[in-house]
Amino acid sequence: MIEKAIQEIFKYYRGNKSELIPILQEVQESLGYLPEKVMHDIAKFIGVAESHVYAVASFYSQFRLLPLGRKRIAVCRGTACHIRGAPHILTTIETTIGLKEGETSDDLEYTLETVACFGCCALAPCLRINMDVYGEMTREKVKELFLPLNEGNKDE
Amino acid sequence: MIKMVTLKIDGKEIKAPEGINLIEAAELAGIHIPNLCYLKGMKGVGACRLCLVEIEGMKAPVIACNTKVKEGMSVNTKTEKVEEVRKFVIDLILSMHPLDCMTCTKAGICRLQSYAYNFGIKESSFTRKKFGYPTDEANPFIKRDPEYCILCGRCVRICKEQGTNVLDFMGRGIGSKVITAGDKPLQESECTFCGSCVDVCPVNALLEADRWRKGREWEYKKIQSQCLSCGNGCDIIVSTKDGEVVKINAGAEEGSAERYICAIGRFGFDSLKNESRVTNPMKRVGDELKVISWDEAISIVSKKLRDAGKNSGFISTAGILNEDALAMKKFASDIVKTKNIDTTVSLYADPDSMRSTGADLENADLIVLVGIDPNQWLRILPALDAIIRRKVERGAKLIVINSGEPKIASVATVSLKDKEVSTLSALAKALEEQMAKGKEQKTEGKEEVSELEKAGDLLIKAEKTVILTSPSLYDASCNIEITASKLKLNVPQVIAIPFEANSKGVTMMGLITEGSSYKDMVGISNKKEQRAKSDSLNVLYAIGEIPLFERPDVDFLIVQNSHLTPLARLADVVLPSTAILESDGTILDYLGRLKKVEKAVEPPGESRTHREIFIDLAKHMGSTLKVTDSEIKKAIKVKKEKLTILPYEKKEGLEVDPFMLIESLNYSIMNGSRLLWLKETEKAVAV
Question: Distance between CA B344 and CA B338 in Å, rounded?
Fold first, then answer.
């Protein structure tokens, strides 16, 4: 399946060295991250060393070399959120789902990350799960938010 | 020819060739501009910021590695301002670098150590930072310790330039790390373990894996010599301590494209101490080889040779030195009086192709590769592969004429994939046509230019072309030379590439097929059995690492080699000869240069050089044998004959599997050193 997606993306490129970043972006968009095998294919396709693709992918923070969880939790650490308790929110999430910032759970359920600011400081402290924003968070609200999610998974 | 410019460096007026950078120019004046990342022969990248200098008339300091000399320039390399910047840089680097110079193997040649010393920095004024990256020491060749890495990028650049291309940076900023694709151990990447990265590392981040507590730079004796493992015959620098080889580095001029050696040349030296070494003469007693004295050995061998006379045969490899080859030739022809003399060269080359004049590959701007497939990864003429890739990186053009699929074609300017002979004849024709058409309408205006025309165009425009050809296509390649000279173009130099270090030397010393050929003598001739049984050889004398694993059909077999090869195990008498690095002499390399081979260590036990053994045998047979330097010099003179166009044909019977040949010619090195690990690892990956 991955193979097919990659070939589909390659169709729109000529195989030039200069196309590396756009290809990486498109692949990531399609797969969510950059698997090792795909980086190997990209290197072959544009005619550069595999280490070069790896170097570029690891240079930019926009590229991920590991898969993301299905639920991407982003905790805001902007000034407004910070003074209204974002650090506590983050630690509560960390203990609830057992992940540290930047980590992804082994079952690929969650990825926990932090962001500088969502731009909804009026709702501080806030967090985002995929595209949904949750505002005016408290520790209790966090626990409520994650426990049902967790239980929901178990049912599936 | 090259324009010179006059400039001032630290008040000293100097003349420097136009186009060089300030580091090189200062070097000419005997001034060292500190730097950690600059690599001679490559473009400066300005990564370390140590080479900052001040130029009068410019506001801010500039990096010397990337600033070219200009007429009237006045440069100051030691102003207060730049010294302060340099001190700051060293201070910063030291904040992340272990301060264990007392046990560090690189102490003495570490650039960082020497600059810290110059600035008197004992400890960084910044908080110590550590990343805790693991050391890669899963292979027996190269130890990579990122803790010591200063991120100068020399290893990354040298690996890229020579086309091996396995190293790069991961991440950014101070957290960067030099890695292979996927940050895997070296053996899981395309690394060939050539060790070029080790040669250029200015600190202790890249090191030969076996160097721990084996002495440091100032304790070593350095010997400039030659590697004899394949047709490239690379320059090497051997470091010895207490009479033992500690390490080997590339020895060609700094900054030259030729400065490269492969894993065999760099790490094969442990074979000198391998248990398969023969250190005493031996003779067969029943199923076993028993140690005997030299006196006994000499008397047995000379008696056998005297009895056999013209029915004795001599075969050798071309890994022997000129002096040994000439001694062998004289001994066999003049004293034993046999015509059956030949070498392994006859397996892949005819003598004429080995008699070509020299060529200047280093300064060529166009390289034409005909029918040869050098490959770093398979260790088939790896240095040639690296040199060509490096030349291409530095702007030279490459035409590959090969009907197979050589890996090197991926960097070719033009790659012609038809049969070599027909391509060559078409190329000659294209040259003539293009010249006839005249310059103005050559290729301009034409929409579709064929690959052949492109190749022709490159040949017309090139100032210095070197054609490197397989020996079987030498005559056909020479036709291009003749065509070019007829058309009044810059005449290409044609070189046939052999697989052994001294193929050209042994040919010039007269070791060419006269009586029975090598193949006849060892019984692998393709021809139908022509020799009557009574005619067959009584005695076969095999010199060097003969690539044979079965005993040829002879009454008496003498093997003279440094190691007990499979063939030596089957011999009637084994004579211990010196190995690589244990004998003085000369070779004539593939580019026709007479190179000095210098002894680095004493041979073990009772081993003797090939020539000493022949001289002893001659003495015992009542003759004197002498080989002088002037004879060698005379023998290597090439008579330049007037060439005529020969038919475009490929010489038959010279096909070999270069991989198998080079492996078996280095059997004792490959199997008697840590290279065995590499072979086994590769095999494991291939399965």
Answer: 18
CATH of residue A36's domain is 1.10.10
CATH number, domain with residue A107: 3.40.30.10
Interface contact B182, partner A, CB < 8 A: yes
CB contact (8 A) between residue A51 and residue B167: yes
Residue A156's pLDDT is 40
Touching check for A59 and chain B: CB below 8 Å? Answer: yes
Write the pLDDT tens digit of every residue in B500-523: 999 999 999 999 998 889 998 888
Is residue A49 within 8 angstroms of chain B, CB to CB? yes
- The helix/strand/coil state of B217 is helix
In angstroms, the CA B366 to CA B369 distance is 10
Taking only residues 90 to 119 of chain A, the set having a beta carbon closer than 8 angstroms to any beta carbon of chain B reads: none
A106 lies in the same domain as A143: yes
DSSP for residue B66: G
Using a CB–CB cutoff of 8 Å, tell me whether A33 touches chain B. Answer: no
Tens of pLDDT, residues B252-279: 999 999 999 999 999 999 999 999 999 9
Decide if A65 is inside a domain: no
Which residues in chain A are closer than 8 Å to B167, comparing Cβ atoms? Answer: 51
Mean pLDDT in residue range B210-222: 94
Whether residue A142 lies inside any domain: the answer is yes
Residue B92 identity (one-letter amino acid): L
* Chain B contact present for A55, CB below 8 A: yes
Residue partners of B83: CB distance under 8 A and separation at least 6: none
Instruction: Give the model confidence (pLDDT) of B380-420 as tens digits.
Output: 999 999 999 999 999 999 999 999 999 999 999 999 999 99
Q: In this complex, do A59 and B169 lie within 8 Å of one another by their Cβ atoms?
A: yes
Residues A50 and A116 in one domain: no
Domain span at residue A41 reads 2-59
CA B397 from chain centre, in angstroms, equals 21
- Report pTM: 0.91
Of the candidates A40, A43, A51, the beta carbon closest to that of B179 is on A51
The C-alpha atoms of residue B364 and residue B463 are separated, in whole angstroms, by 8
Instruction: Round to whole Å and give the CA distance between A126 and A131.
Output: 13
> Average pLDDT, whole number, for chain B?
92
Count of residues in chain A: 156
In this complex, the residue of B160, B182, B410 whose CB is nearest that of residue A54 is B182
